[in-house]
Amino acid sequence: MHLMGRRAVLATGIVGGSLPIALGNSLALPDEAVSISFFGDGAVQTGIFHETLNLASLWRARVLFVCENNGWAEFTSRAEHTTVETVAAHAQTYGMPADTIDGGDVLAVRAAASRLLERVRCGNPALLECQITRLRPHYEGDLRRAADPDPNDPLERLAAVLTDAGEDAATLAALRRTATVAAERALADALNDPPARSDDAAHLVFRRQP
Amino acid sequence: MIERGTRPDQDEVVCRSMTTTQPTELLEPLLLARRFDEILLANTDAIRGHFHVSIGLEATAAALSRVRRSGDLITTTYRNHAHLAALGSDLSVMYAEIFGRDLGHQRGRGGSIHLSDPGLGMLHTSAMVSGGVPIALGQAYSLSRTRPGAVCFCFFGDGAFGEGAVHESLNLASLWRLPLVFVCENNAPPGDGRANDQQSAVSLLAIAEAHRVHGRAVDARHPAAVVDALEALAEEVRDGDGPRFLDAQAGRWPGNATFFPHDATGRTDVRHAQRDADDPWRSTDDPVLNECRRLLAAGVGLDHIRAIDRRITAEVEGALGRARLAPVAPPEAAFTDVVAP
Amino acid sequence: MTGPTLVQAARDALGQAMAADSAVIVLGEDVTAGGPFGLTKGLVDEYGRQRVRNTPISEGAVMGVAVGLALGGAQPFVDLMFCDFVTAASDQLFNHAAKIHFMSGGCYSVPLAVWTVGGAGTRWGAQHSQRLDAWIASVPGIKVLAPASPALAAASVLEAIGDPDPVVVFVDRALLHSRRDLLGDTGSPWRSRVVRGGTELTVAATGRLVHLALDAADSIGASAEVVDVQRLAPLDPEPVVDSVTRTSRLLVLHDEAGPGALAAMIAAAVQEAAFWYLDAPIARLTSPATPVPAAATLEDAYVLDADAVASAMKQVLQA
Asked: Which numeric CATH code is attached to C193-318?
């Protein structure tokens, strides 16, 4: 739940926890660079979401807030969490440009994100609400499983669009194979790594031991 | 399920005796609140702690006293003197608590910033900004289960909108259709097309609406208007239509200071209602003077107003005297009642 | 006494840090007005509103903003006003700031500095008078410094800002306007320090209680070795242990409610390392296990005073 790397600065297990961090991060970035914050629709009902959007707007921070709205927060539907239908409506309250789009349409997401990012770079924090269908359960191991394959699968939808545009099946199949091979190789490499050592833990608490 | 602590008695007379046909029915709670705080400011030698005054914000408290019904609950903030005084709380007990004396149920443990009166439906007062809001939510939830038609009034200042807890509470109140009236005592000047300089939204109403809590704004320098607004909203809530929000916009009293208020405008002289004044406080912002002006325009004589004022002032001074004679809170009160027996 | 007060010294250190490094950014409520205690007085005039940022009453988001700033290479300094407000900031401080270095496998550290003031005695009541330092100190990943003199407060501020990890400078409210200095004021805030040598017992204390211990020892004519604990997390019990090996008696003083988590940690550490040196059980003196009452007479009954400390010392000496 806390995968972090060089490009993705932070992942948190606390719903809503990363929003203010993204805001703060944007304040430390060089001009034109932006911070992108991903979160689910469950985070929208947290107080920290509102505190953060208000601050972002007041401070004209270069943050793009991206809400992956799949209509579920853990095991509860959005309708049981709030009477507000779209997340973008909240952004408008704080004077932010916002857009609600079909998050399963990769090309639409790219187009909307590009449009909003241009505004963000000029100091207008914005919110992009991507409405998506949840294909898998909240976590792996949850017994409520969707049937495979799913017509809502964004990959399948993109494949259909590309096919209609003239891409041939062999090219698409080759792309899938390349990705699968890369993932399988990464998995194999990871399984070959030695287990994490518990005696390393104490040294990771602080960057500098007092 | 009975709430822990003192439960408001539904048969108890909780408001001062005023008939609804009395034109001066709003003036009395206004003056009770105003004189309470002015006389407090003249007796700061007896205060050994921190306090805030409600001067300038009395209209919402006075309106509450007219709109509240027996069985309703109230949460307020560290700026609570007007709410208690206007509702008819025992003024000597209030003063005593502020002075750290042992006269009421709090026994000096709370002081000014935590003044409460369970008999009036104010069970606990938080001094944390927005602290009372989620509590009001729970109280409203409790009322919805045990006392249909009863309402919880939740007071907070404009600064509270910075706290996520207010947003969470607005959302939940709307989602669960709770009988809650959110009243924002808003004394912040507007800021450049925004509600104020700490909020990016155009208005506090817009924020409430975003959470699907409908409401209205009112000029809280005019008490009669506040009564109308609060009454209308409370009725909608009593009818089961979900929560409501009132943005009660007041002017800022010149003596308002973050930690220690100071007496910047002296004792209110109701005769100023008939005179011109060149300072904004006396000419437009003082809700007490504005109510006097309304009464004068309605044909109530100045002498009558002054007579009421004298009576109330004497009452407040008497309460102060009793409080100053009350014993200091004994040390053993510091260590009891941490948990229920 | 003519030196600066503790808060003045801290303010000067903060100004110094801001002058030396443009990455230092101050955030908090009322910081442009100098704050309620004067910590940020005048800084906005020198460094502008981009570096001295007034915030709405949004402690949760503001602490998170500070974490994000820190991850982005800035040096945020959060004025958390009253330590009671750490409750509102706790998710970002405890679940994020404290854990990012660990969870990222050392990829990122969070150079966050937090200043907060706690303690009873000023009639602010239960929600504005707590000592929550034990709670903060119990979360791995946060360093906590509790300076007891102006010089060490200044040093703590500088160290907190220069440290790559989250550091909370926890200031005793009773010492904000104190000018009293202590032996060892030129030393490091990271080590517990002996502020007076003695032979009959060791008194380990923090904040104002260090000064009270010195005064109480004088009043009963005891030769007490007083150790200013200073670093509350990770705890540095070694100087206390070392002292106990010479005096054989220990009294731990801490301004916290109840049995005292921090006092217990110190006592436990000494018990483990120096049990065989002890001539008497370790004693702890903390405040009652109640919320802080507001009334003066009640709060005076709650707050440890010189008499209580002297009396506890006598008991340990006679045990």
From this structure: 3.40.50.920
